[in-house]
Amino acid sequence: MPSTAETSVSAGGLKPPAERLYGRQRGHPLRPRQQRLLDITLPRLRFPADQAGGPAAAFAPPRNELWLEVGFGGGEHVVSQIEAHPDVGYIACEVFENGLCSLLSRLVPEGLSEADASLPAGLRLWDEDARQLLTALPEASLSRLFLMFPDPWPKARHAKRRFVHPGNLPVVARALKPGAVWRVASDDPTYQAWVTDVMTSQDFFDYTEPARSRPDDWPPTRYEAKALRCGRTPLYWSFVRRG
Q: Does residue 190 fall inside a structural domain?
């Protein structure tokens, strides 16, 4: 377990959030099909920045309820959610190109045209910093927010890169409706202690103790499966936006 100095939000010298929370945007070199998915399919799904002030109109037909996922990784959670909730407008955020390709390849299987394949009407992608979109969206426009197994940035000097950060909470809270739910999952002990410390020291959300097994309506992810194989215990929080 990390030291109190590493996790305490009241510890001296806590830095404000970093200008960008992520590291590299590309991992291994992209294959030709992956590049086509980014060049051809991604623009078909990209959330238009000029519609952030009226996000419901970014979907056809417009959606009354909007959900947002921050850092969707391999995309399996996104796919499960949009299949289970086809009437919701779902905005999925990811800056890592290989993660974007992973989701896009699920939506456009091998052999289908990147330009013409049918795509989910209720899904839009945001491939920039999620905080930019959260800042641009209207106040109280989101009904649900997901942060599933984020990069824990475990070193103390990298705490400023964690999405769950006192400096980010006003941005998150502004975009969420009263009563909206923010789901957070993590298997990293440092991040788990950090989330507990941050969320018990704020006034935007009701804090409840996390579940130690995945709730029934939470789709599984590859990161959860890897954590369980390695003997780590994920925690699952549901924070409710106060009115």
A: yes
Q: Is residue 24 part of a domain?
A: no
**238 close to 216: Cβ distance less than 8 angstroms:** no
| Domain interval for residue 225 | 37-229+236-241
Taking the whole predicted model, whether its pTM rises above 0.85 is answered as yes
Asked whether the predicted pLDDT for residue 6 surpasses 50, the reply is no
Instruction: For residue range 137-182, list pLDDT tens digits in order.
Output: 999 999 999 999 999 988 888 788 899 999 999 999 999 999 999 9
* Residues forming the active site: 151
Q: Is residue 181 domain-resident?
A: yes
How many helices (H) and strands (E) the chain has is answered by 9, 7
- Do the domain assignments include residue 21? no
> Could you give the CA distance from residue 11 to residue 193 in angstroms, rounded to a whole number?
14
Q: Based on the structure, what is the number of domains in the chain?
A: 1
Helix intervals (H) in 1-113: 4-7, 32-36, 42-45, 76-84, 97-107
| Token output for 44 | 């078909």
What does the alpha-carbon distance between residue 162 and residue 127 come to, in Å, rounded to a whole number? 18
